[in-house]
Amino acid sequence: MNRLAIDGGDPIRTEPFPAWPVFGAEEERALIEVLRSGKWGALDGSKVKQFQERFAAFQDAKHGICVVNGTLALEVALRAAGVGPGDEVIVPSYTFIATATSVLAVGARPVFADVDPQTMQIDPASVEERVNSRTRAVIPVHLAGHPADLDALMALAGRYGFTVIEDAAQAHGAAWKGRRVGAIGHLGTFSFQSSKNITAGEGGIVVTNDDALAARAWSIHNVGRVPGGLWYQHESIGWNLRMTEFQAAVLLCQLDRAEEQLHRRQVNAAALSGLLAHIDGVEPLSVDSRVTSHAWHLYLFRYDPAAFGGMDKSTFIRCLQAEGIPAAPGYIPLHRNRAMRQALWEQFGVKEEDIPPCPSAERACDETVVWLPQSALMGTSQDLASIAQALEKIQAVASQRQQAK
Ligand SMILES: *Cc1c(COP(=O)(O)O)cnc(C)c1O
User: Which residues are annotated as active site (predicted)?
Assistant: First the structure.
């Protein structure tokens, strides 16, 4: 019998998956150019301006305002939309914690909605259950690069009058019904942190089609200044959240690589789904037919422990990792996060028993959903085949063991 790597057998692979980020002579040249120009800040040079225009166009948005990271991009969007103390903002429970901490940062209360178990995107029915007169905004997260159901959410926004802020930190290049995400809602935000599909190590951007929201976001990120105003003319309260020219120089080069990389991930994700279709008890998440471009920041699949000899999720993940596959367990739902529960109690008097459950998010975390990073989709067909081989090997050994019992 083939021994699992976790038990000291030979792993399916020892070679790493392709390294991330990808860079070359272009990035080197661009960085040296900024260095030698002496124009290192966004107010001195033109790289940030160029990048925010190009990136906004890349996402079918009219305006882009670069900021220091994706977390502060969310905070700027919330402030631009006028969200503050006394307001509630509905966010999915199954997301990175920054989606909710940005809400806390502006003094508003995050309210957690459940996700659709088919796509893991925020469930519009759960959003509607949580809407009340204090609901000021909803932040759909395009988890893994799969757009949330923007049709349903924009219809709810029209009915209840809340602002939709797309957290598109994982969705560079993603499109919903032929239109790239970010400015389909009232505002959208992206991250350029190291792991993201377009990166400069850190960075973020707010995008919108609304001139007034863009002007507010610009002012908030530039210490309350107004375009064309005097240096010490601060018309509103803002902060210095500007990106540097070094980041923008790298991002311009990364953007040149983005379409090809997006395409490669899409081709590889389809191929991987084809391979996994042959494995009993392994199922890629569904892709909504209205998604015309999936950005594949993550590849999520569901596994059925019963098809793997009853193996629990943490053992399953450790087995995959030992075989050389960079599998990860993913998020712990935020409505169960202790720090978040404490903040809700201390800041808003919300008791634990008054936080509604999110059963699909809980089940995804506890039992079924497994993540692969985008870099696993950047390699060759052999790289993809090794993922299927590792799953088949674990399945064969685990079911043999179960039969032996
Ligand atoms: C990465 C990420 C953020 C935060 O972006 P940073 O640039 O790391 O601050 C927010 N939301 C989601 C869904 C993310 O994946």
Answer: 196
What fold is seen in the domain 25-254? Answer: Aspartate Aminotransferase; domain 2 (3.40.640)
CA of 182 to the centre of ligand 1 (A): 14
DSSP string, 253-295: HHHHHHHHHHHHHHHHHHHHHHHHTTSTTEEEPP--TTEEE--
Q: What is the pLDDT of residues 188-228, one digit of tens each?
A: 999 999 999 999 999 999 999 999 999 999 999 999 999 88
Active site residue 196: yes
Q: Of all atoms in ligand 1, which is nearest to the CA of residue 143? A: 13
Q: How many Å separate Cα 347 from the centre of its chain? A: 27
> CA geometry: angle at 269 spanning 267 and 272, to 5°?
110
* Cα-to-centroid distance, 71 and ligand 1 (Å): 6
Nearest CA to ligand 1 atom 2: 169
Which CATH code for domain 258-404?
3.90.1150.10
CA of 70 to the centre of ligand 1 (A): 5
